[in-house]
Input
Amino acid sequence: MEALALSDDILLSVDKAARYIGNEINHIKKNPSDVDIRFALCFPDVYEIGMSHLGIQILYEMFNRRSDVYCERVYSPWADLHTILKERDIPLFALESQQPVRDFDFLGITLQYEMCYTNILQILDLSKLPLLAAERTEADPLVIGGGPCTYNPEPIADFFDLFYIGEGELQYDALFDLYLSMKKDDAYTREAFLRRAAQIPGIYVPSLYDVTYADDGTLASFAPMYDDVPAKVHRQVVTDLDAAPYPTKPVIPFVQATQDRIVLEIMRGCIRGCRFCQAGMVYRPNREKSLDTLKRYAREMIETTGYEEISLSSLSSSDYSALPELVNFLIDECAAKRVNISLPSLRIDAFSLDVMKKVQDIKKTSLTFAPEAGSQRMRDVINKGLTIEDILGGSELAFKGGWNKVKLYFMLGLPGETDEDIQAIPELGNEIASLYYDTVPKEERTGRCQITMSTSFFVPKPFTPFQWARMYPPGEYLRRAKLLNDTMKEQLNRKSLRYQWHQADVTVLEGIFARGDRRVGAVIRKAYEYGALFDAWSEYFDMEKWERAFADCGVDPDFYIMRERPADELLPWDFIDTGISKDFLRREWERAKRGEVTANCRKQCSGCGCRAYGGGVCFG
Output
């Protein structure tokens, strides 16, 4: 085992020291001097969150299959270790070798959630790297970003040398081969490499694009500085998931991770077309793994991990075409190995309930619906594809099956939402509770039913039909939450109803980061200097620091959230080609305003543009 970067006295003084020592089961060990490229793969959040992320495990496995690459992991140190590293001048290190991140060739940071942006600066700062890409030298690692937040990388563009847009399985080999060939030919400089890398499909180099702004603050132009740099960066999409690498020996953390189980990815993309859902749009087209491949992966991972639970991963597991066969296989396989099965993202129908009765303790579990909106009008606006008959029918089946706990997820602040739509949420909860008391005879009840309604505040995201929508100030979101809460108290079955909601300030910031431009980067840096860190964690989030940062930088947050954007406005992310046409998104925006539903991809092609990728549901 490598000598640890942290002394015993430090490890004994911090919370969960096992986050920082590496050497976990299934970790990959190489001699750093035997490879040509060292890649530090970073998840900018605490270890237990990062270790739960499938994308990191896939890239870790894929990169390390190359004999000339050594990929190691790094996560955000928790606040206690952050302070110690700063005070004692200890550079941030990777887990496998325990060596400083600044000694690597690449630092790859996955961008899963906008509220982790100050953690990106923490990683750079503790690694003793310049925060701004423009200030880095030949001795510094190349900093590359990937993940869903790269669908608008502009607010953090100044901190990155390059971004990878799309699914990572396709172009990293080309990027590594270019790096090695330029080193071998003695043609490598940071500037020359970035110029060549920008010509690889899916690679975006912010420093090679010129941005100007109009007098009203909107983007006036966004264009490459050189003829050999593409004006459009094309999202990379894996069409054959069976042939793609998959980690059947994932690293097993010492500390209990948030997702402490085997993760079996069954498909990517979604057929549903919910207008608020960025993942449902940017992961198009819907593509499935074959049943044989999934059976093989499940068997291997049960053997190599020792986990006691296996979970299906997808945006909508009920839409997997071979779900009955897969679930029946898992029930047989897992029962023999004493492994539990977790089935998230299932619709509540007769088949799903039958399966869940076989794999869950009904008395302990809740069923989860995500109607997203209380009224049928709003569900049509967002294209949820869920009717009141679906919701009540599923609830009745659940109650008859023995469940008495139901969780309902909704969003507040959706485009076109009225007070009547908000009041319809607790009214729906009351209707479901009434159904329980009407359906289940008194002598068969296991107690009062519990209907938990949880709301988040809607955030419009790039490459969705709602990317043009306005948002609201925090006080308006809280008014809507209070209206819902007050309406709940008026319901006949109020003792069976519970209500939970999220912070409004965080929602507003997330909206600014999601649709902001490069001017927001200065605010993020200033907030970090004021101590903003782990903003995704409620105990650390401090809106006052962000308000000071916006004021100091002369950036008006209302510009990014308080207006509906016109159809002809140049958007900061328009240079990215996701395969989804802007015309399609605009049509869906107009259909939303009229409350018109668009059929799912299996029923009818809506002409989004993703057929050009040549695979998946478009050709099913």
